[in-house]
Write a structure and sequence with these properties.
Number of strands: 4
CATH architecture of the largest domain: 2-Layer Sandwich
CATH class of the largest domain: Alpha Beta
Structural class: alpha+beta
Radius of gyration: 22 Å
Distance between the termini: 40 Å
Low-confidence stretches: 229-238
Helix content: 40-55%
Oligomer: single chain
Mean pLDDT: 93
Largest sheet: 4 strands, antiparallel
Order of helices and strands: EHHHEHEHHEHHHH
Shape: flat
Bound molecules: flavin-adenine dinucleotide
CATH topology of the largest domain: Gyrase A, domain 2
């Protein structure tokens, strides 16, 4: 799996900060865009994020290419509706060589891996045979499994990304989409460090665990750091 940040709003933090400044002053965003100092920009962004005035973050958008994830993963990704997607078609593209995505839990060389690979091989054989019989790719693809790889272009704005990271960087999220989300987070942090400085799963962004999994390693780690090393892993212990 490979995640690339293809492009983004040229100065994503400046756009959001200029929009925010215009909301609270008599000057236009044009002036704010050119005049805001880096320090003022950071201060404004932190203020709008902590106050929940998140709509200004919608002016900054980010386009990723996600390559080689499974269809099981892309199906979860496209559930996030405030985004734009362009996915490689199984109708128009014939898959001569299919390099299926194999989860780590089954790729340990045991019986599970054998069963899994046999299943995939059966799908691969059936797909090729159907194509050879003249069945259109759009119908032959019905035998392809969720492990089939796909490529997808995803565009999300910064507000949607914050929501996406809260849900999908969580250790309770499925491993493959979590890997995608973690990669996306590290890519946007490099270009919009203030907007995404506190981004991550709910335990990072809001210090709460909606799953109430207080034995989760992430929660324990965060909670320990908050309590200066004390091993209380339950919020009620605060
Ligand atoms: C751990 C986990 C388990 C899941 N399990 C399942 C499952 O078993 N079955 C299943 O079907 N899905 C499941 N999902 C998917 C989940 O239900 C959401 O569809 C997905 O996470 C997208 O989240 P979202 O709606 O916040 O994102 P988006 O669709 O991007 O929406 C972003 C935000 O916009 C607002 N919004 C968007 N559309 C509307 C609307 N129509 N009305 C009001 N507000 C809106 C909401 O505030 C929303 O949070 C799971 C997700 C996670 C993280």
């Amino acid at each position: 799996m490979k995640v690339t940040l293809l492009t983004h709003t040229p100065d994503p933090e400046r756009v959001a900060a200029a929009a925010a400044r215009q909301c609270y002053s008599k000057f236009s965003a044009t002036k704010a865009y050119s005049d805001l100092s880096s320090e003022d920009m950071k201060r404004l962004l932190r203020k709008i994020i902590s106050s929940g005035h998140l709509s200004v973050l919608e002016h900054a958008s980010f386009t990723f290419v996600v390559d080689g994830i499974s269809r099981a993963c892309s199906h979860q990704l496209v559930r996030h509706r405030i985004a734009s997607y362009s996915q490689q078609s199984q109708r128009y593209v014939k898959f001569d060589e299919i390099d299926f995505v194999v989860p780590e839990s089954v790729s340990k060389g045991g019986e599970a891996e054998k069963v899994f690979l046999e299943g995939l091989e059966g799908c691969r054989r059936a797909y090729r045979a159907l194509l050879e019989m003249g069945i259109p790719a759009e119908d032959a693809r019905y035998v392809l499994p969720q492990a089939s790889p796909t490529k997808i272009v995803v565009t999300m704005n910064a507000r949607e990304l914050l929501n996406f990271f809260e849900l999908r960087c969580c250790l309770s999220a499925q491993w493959e989409i979590r890997e995608v989300a973690d990669e996306m987070l590290s890519l946007v942090k490099a270009v919009a460090p203030t907007v995404f400085e506190a981004a991550g799963p709910f335990c990072v962004s809001r210090r709460v665990c909606p799953e109430k999994k207080y034995d989760c390693p992430k929660w324990v780690e965060l909670y320990k750091s908050k309590k200066g090393g004390a091993a209380h892993a339950h919020p009620e212990a605060e």
